[in-house]
Every structure is written in structure tokens, then in C-alpha cells.
Amino acid sequence: MNNHDIPMDNQWLPFTPNRTFRQDPRVFVGAEGMHFTTHDGKKIIDGISSLWCVGAGHNRKPINEAIKNQLDTLDYATAFQASNDKAFKAAQMIADMAPGDLNKVLFCNSGSEAADTALKVALAYHRARGEGHRNVFIGREKGYHGVNFGGMSVGGLPANRKVYGAQLLPRVDHMRFIHDPVNHAYIHHEEPVWAEDPLLELENRILVLHDPSNIAAVIVEPIAGSAGWYIPPQGYVKRLREICDKHGILLIFDEVITGFGRLGVNFGADYYGVVPDMLNFAKAVTNGVIPLGGVICRDFIYDAMMNANSPAHAIEFFHGYTYSGHPVACAAAIATLDLMKEENLFARAGQQGKVLGDAMHSAMKGLPNVIGIRTLGLAGAVELASIPGTPGKRAYDVFMDCFHHGVWVRPAGENIVICPPYIVEDAHIDQIVQTVADSIRRHA
Ligand SMILES: Cc1ncc(COP(=O)(O)O)c(C=O)c1O
Fold this sequence. Notes:
Blueprint: H1 18-21, E1 28-32, E2 35-38, E3 43-46, H2 49-52, H3 61-73, H4 85-97, E4 102-108, H5 111-128, E5 136-140, H6 149-154, H7 158-161, E6 172-175, E7 186-188, H8 200-210, E8 215-220, H9 236-247, E9 250-254, H10 268-272, E10 278-281, E11 293-298, H11 299-306, H12 327-342, H13 345-364, E12 370-375, E13 380-384, H14 393-404, E14 407-408, E15 410-412, E16 415-418, H15 426-442
Helix pairs in contact: 3-12, 4-12, 5-11, 13-15, 14-15
The structure holds pyridoxal-5'-phosphate.
The site of pyridoxal-5'-phosphate (PLP) has 14 residues, from helix 5.
């Protein structure tokens, strides 16, 4: 297929420079295992699991078969005042995998919807217990919780927020970011030990400013993914839990990226040994094949909402999506989670993560313009010095150059992020890492 065989006039591409796209298009027409095929017949290795989704690799037959069977059995059924067998089963599997009493799953279709759903649950929960004044949300600088108004407001990526300024949610504050570029630019499968405690700012300034009794929830990604794989210092996640407990504040983990195996275990919550009050998921739960997201809530949240004083026929939570618990998406989730278990893919992600970490640090440290490398789980970021006046340009150029050399990575600010499918082999890691390293040299 040539460029002119594809009608490119009408699709407005998300998070993509549209003006230049057609000069050098990236159009995928097939995928198998670790690789895409482009419209002009090139084979490209998927170094980012197609945005952290495709843990089990592309075109997995058990997932495809489950979807086909579901289409022939129950294609779709209304989600309100009824449900379907696959939604109940998927919810049970997900709750079984989640730590502690994270047992109640509210389905939606994406990570952005999960963020807004969790924030709404937080407000509704506090109101149900007579604490409706708790309506302040705390996010973190450089956090990413999708693109809807709630998630964007608690998120902290300046470019995503700046246009929407005054219309973002009121009564939101942000904790400081968790990166120390001077002492901990290089993190190799470890939790850095900071000399100072970044959460003192939360305790001593933010909570005091708003008064803890007014705060509904704190939302964080256990590891900041979209910003470029930034790893919190040792003890941070546990201490955040303690602070929230002390003040009756709900703790929400956005595990859209860290959930379902990326860190070698079920969730970031397991990795850090901390149970949040809500846990958001999406992406890898269906291997990315069909949109599905959700929020897993602890029992006490659900119980409080059920026990609020309303008649038995009344809806307890006025929220939901037409496609909440879509049977085809839930069938895909069931097959994906079965497959991940059968092939022990989470443990494999943990093992291959070490291979990736070793490869990135040994191939990239000391290269021109490399100012940091952070690896943990099956993911890593290499941070490049910004070109003065054109932020993000160097990473974008490296990303495009890697594509021309058969490797798909992700530019995130000044970082290049690598997060391959869990099925990745050592030779794939070598190819991806060497290609990025060569490209960094070419762009010195
Ligand atoms: C932590 C986190 N939350 C939310 C989202 C948004 O998910 P979606 O693009 O499915 O709306 C993302 C997407 O990358 C994410 O990384």
C-alpha cells in the first residue's frame, strides 16, 4: 500500500502532530507477537506494548477466540438495571487479583473514565457518611490521569492543562513531583533513598492549607508513567498511605499503566505492599484489544454507599456508562487474565525487566545528551538534555529515527520510554535498546 492508497484527510489524530504526519506517516495494518506491519510493508518492533496495553503480545488466539465466541453468544446487552455473565466473571477475577479488600469493581471503558469515576466515588462516599464538605482533591505534579476534566484537573502535566486553565475543577491541589535529577538521575531497579522527605510538603503545607477535614482523596500513579517513568523514593508510597489514614483521606492509585503485571506482580499496590482505597485500571486488562477500564473499590466504600439512607428501589450511585461491563470487553478481559496466568507472564515481565534495565544502563549511560536513566519493572526511560528553545524536540527526533530503523518507542517530554510486551525476548530487548542508543548518538 502507498500513502495515497490511504485516505488521510479526515481523521484528526490524538496526541500527534497532525500537520507533519502525512509527510512521514506511521500507519499500521497488521500485528503479530512483538511486531507491527506498516502500510508500506515494513516490520516494526513494538517497544511500548502499544501504549502499555499489549502485555501478552499481538494477535493472541485465545483472546481473539473469546471475543468471536462472545459476539456469537451475547454481542451486547444494556448495562443499567441489568448486567451480563461475563461482566460478573471478569469483576470476580479482577477482585481476586487485587490485594486486601479491594473487592467491588465499577467498569468503564478507559483510564480517563476510571479517573473521573474514582473522583466521583470519593465525593459520593464522603457525602454518604455525612462528610460532604470533604471535596478537595490532591494530585501530584506531572501526574497523568487521562484527558477528561476530573483527571486533567488532578493531573499535573502542564501541556495537557494550560489551554483549559479556568475551567479545571476547583479545589484541587498538587503535591510536588518525585524526581531528584541531581542525586538520583540514574535508577536501576531500585527505590532511591532521598535525604529529604518529599511528603513533608503534603503534611506541613498542603493539608494545613486546606485543612485535612476538607480533603476527599489523594490520587497518584505509583510510578509516574506518562511523564516518563519516574520512580518514587523509598518509603514514599507507604508513608502516603499512613498520612491518608491519619486524616480519613481516600487514597486512589491510578494503575492504568502499573496494573496487570508491568512491575512483575499483579499491581503496583502489591509491589509497594500498600492497599489503596480505590485502584484504577485499563489497558493491559484486555491486552489492549478492546477498550475496558474500571475502578476497584474497597468494601467499606461500597458498604457506606449501600447503607446511605435511601429507599431500596433507589439507585445508590448515579454514575455509569452505556458500555460499562460490555460483554465483549469482559470476555476479552477473562481470556487475557487466563492467558497471562497460564503463561506466567507477570513473572516473566519481572524477569525481562531486569534484562531491559541492565541493557539500558550499560548501552546508554554516558552517551551524548543522556542526563538520566530510570528502570523498574519491565519499563525504562532515558532522559535527554532539552534543546534550548525547543522542548521535547530531541526525544521526538530520536523517536522518529528509531521508527525509521524498525523500532517503536515513545517520546515523553525529554524522555524516550521503552516498555515492551511481557513476551519480549532478550534479542528483542537488545535490538530496541541498541537502536535507541544508536539514534541518540546520531542526534548528538
Ligand atoms: C496512569 C494513567 N491514567 C489514565 C490514563 C488514561 O487512559 P486512557 O487513555 O485509556 O483514557 C493513562 C493513559 O496512559 C495513564 O497512564
